Amino acid sequence: MIKRLSLASRLALLFAACTAVVSLIAGVLFNQASEAHFVELDQQLLDGKLVALRSTLQGVDTPQLFAQREAQLRTELNRQPDLALRITAAGQRWYDGAPGVALPAAPGLHSLQNAGTDYRVYNVPLLPNQPGSPQLSLMLDITHHQHFLQRMQHLIWLTVGLSALATALLGAWAARSGLRPLRRMSEVAAGVSAHSLTQRLPQQQMPVELAELAQAFNAMLGRLDDSFQRLSAFSADIAHELRTPLSNLLTHTQVILTQPRPLEDYREALHSNLEELQWMAQLVNDMLYLAKADHGLLMPKREALVLEAEVEALLEFFALLAEDAHVSLVREGTAHTAGDRGMLRRALSNLLDNALRFTPAGGEVRVRIVGRKQGVTLTVENTGEGIPAALLPRLFDRFYRADPARREGSSEHAGLGLAITQSIVRAHGGRIYCESGAGWTRFVIELPTAD
What is the pTM of this model? Predict the structure, then answer.
C-alpha cells in the first residue's frame, strides 16, 4: 500500500515544482533573449563588413574587373578571420572562401551548420537595385556564440535542478516549522481523555490562520470538560437519590422479618415500602423523560391554548396548598398560544410548586402573562429570600438544589422539576431563565409565535 505524503512533504514538493517552473521559464526567456541579442550583433557586424566590401568592389560587374580588385578584397577579408565570402554571378563563382559548403539561396540572414561549425549567412546583392548584380554571401563563424548558448543552457538546467532541490529542502524546513502549531494541537488532542480535559492550546502563540481553530478547539474541550463534570455529578446524584429509599426499603424489610408479627404490621410495612417504590418509579420516569428530551424525542402537540384559562385551572388546583401556607395567588394578563396542553401544564405546575415552597407566610405568588408580536412571555414570581446570582445558571441542572444541605431520608423534591420544565420549554422552541432581586424571584418563560 502506498504511503500517503505528509502535508509538509506536499508543501515542499509544491515549492520545488513552482521554483523549477519559474526558473525554467526565466532560463528559456533569457536564452531566447541572448540568442536574439547575438543575432542582432551578428547582423550589425555583417552590415558593417558589407559596407566595406561594397566600397572595395564598387563598380565591379564583370569577372575581369573583379580580378583587378581581388587582391584588395583578400586584404579586407584578412582583417576579419572568422568571416568568409562567396561571390556568384550568372551561375558562376567569382570568389569562394568556403568551398564545399552548401549555402541557402534565399536572400537575407540565415543560420547554417557545416562539419561542426556554425555560420551566420547573409545573402545580399553587390549592387543594390541593379538587375543581374553579383550576389554576395557573407559567412560569419559563430561557433563561439553557440558554445556560449549551450553552456548557458546547461547552466539553466543545473540552476533549475539546484534551485528545486534547495527550495524543497527549505520548503520542508519552513513547512515543518509552520506546522508546529498543528503538531501541538495533535499532542493536546492525543492527551485528551475523560480524566484529562484541562489542557488548552495557547492561542497567543498561534498564527493568525490557526488562532480561530485553536479557539474553537479550546471551546470544544471546555464543553467536553463541563459535560463530563456534569455527567459525573449526575451519576453521583442518581446514586445519592436512590441510596436513601433503597436503604429505607432494606432496613424496614429486614426489621419486619426479624420475628413473626401481626398481619397489620405487615400491611403497614408494605404500604411504607409502596410509597418509597412509587417515588423511585417517579424518579425513573422523570429520568426517562429527560433522556427523551436530550435526544429530541419530545414532540409537543400544537393546539390553540388560552393561557389565562390554563393558569386559572392550575391556580385553582394549588389554592388549598396556598391557603394552608398563607400565600396569595394572583394572575395578570391574557394571551393565546399554540402548544401541548399537558406539557405546558406540567411545566407551570413545577414552577408554581417551587414558588409555593419558597414563599414565606404572608407572601405572594404572581403569574403574569404578556402577549407580543414576537411571542408570549409568562412569568411566575414569588416574594421571599432571593437566590444568589452565582447560583442562577445552575438552577436548571438535574438534581441541583440551591440549598446544599440534603435532607437524608426524604423522598421529595429530587431536583428534577426545573430541568423537566426547561426541556418542555425548549421542545416548544422557547427559553426559560431566572431573575432574583429586590425581594422577588422570577422564572420567565418566552414562547415564540405559533406558525
Answer: 0.52
